[in-house]
Amino acid sequence: MKKRTLLFTAAIAALSFSACTDAPESDTATTSDAKAAATAAGEAYTVDPAASKIEWIGTKVTGHHQGSLAIKSGTINVENGSVASGEFVLDMTSIMVTDGDDTASNNKLKGHLLSPDFFDAAGHPEGKFVVTSVQPFSGTVTDSSDKAQEGISKYKVTDPTHTISGNLTLKGVTKNVTFPAKVTVTGNSIDALAKFNINRKEWGIVYAGQPDDLIRDHIHLGISLKANK
Q1: What are phi and psi of 21, to 5 degrees?
Q2: 3-state class of 123 per DSSP?
Q3: Is residue 75 situated within a structural domain?
Q4: How far from 86 is each of 166, 172, 179, 215, CA to CA, in Å?
């Protein structure tokens, strides 16, 4: 049996941008109150944590920080050849900072991100994403000739096929987010890609930063999942 893969991504990586800009220029997820989860069962595929990836970028007045977060577990369901439902768990205790080579500085920021100022990993060690809707994409497609938009580690999906909605839980707060994604089902594999910004304050992450170096509200998120049948 061929391997079935789910690559479901909202990528955040280190592409240079002005220190005074907001989050990377990307699709901004539409946020609303939590909704009922999609209930289609279909064929189940188990997320492979070792092959899955989450990346993030946060910006402030003087620059930006970037890092990663592990996916702990998850299941994706396929019905009639299309992704119909599913969910995955984020390991908030695994957050990493990958700025340059200053390990001490990265570890200091990591400790702050794990604290109640940000994600409160001790009180909320897990986050979660639960699919509520998967619809065919209809909208403006990013110019695929723009080399700055290539790959998982850039800012936008150049050729989205679907619009995904799901309940994202961070720090005990659940909001529904909607964003474009590329989802391909071929044989025994599924690939999906999504990249978008969210406003951290919607999830109660309101730490402002230093008075002379305020943190921007929007975070660029990247989630890469691989799931096997």
Answers
A1: -85, 170
A2: coil
A3: yes
A4: 9, 20, 16, 33
- Please give the span between the terminal C-alpha atoms of the chain, in angstroms, as a whole number: 9
- What is the 3 state secondary structure string of 37-66? CCCCCCEEEEECHHHCEEEEEEEECCEEEE
Rounded to two decimals, what is the model's pTM? 0.83
The per-residue pLDDT for range 127-147, each reduced to its tens digit, is 999 999 999 988 765 444 444
Q: Give which of 28, 26, 30, 36 is closest to 167, Cα–Cα.
A: 36
Is residue 82 a contact partner of residue 134, using CB atoms and an 8 Å limit? yes
What is the CATH classification number for the domain harbouring 31?
Answer: 2.40.128.110
How many residues in the chain? 229
3-state secondary structure of 108: helix
C-alpha 73/C-alpha 225 separation (Å) is 10
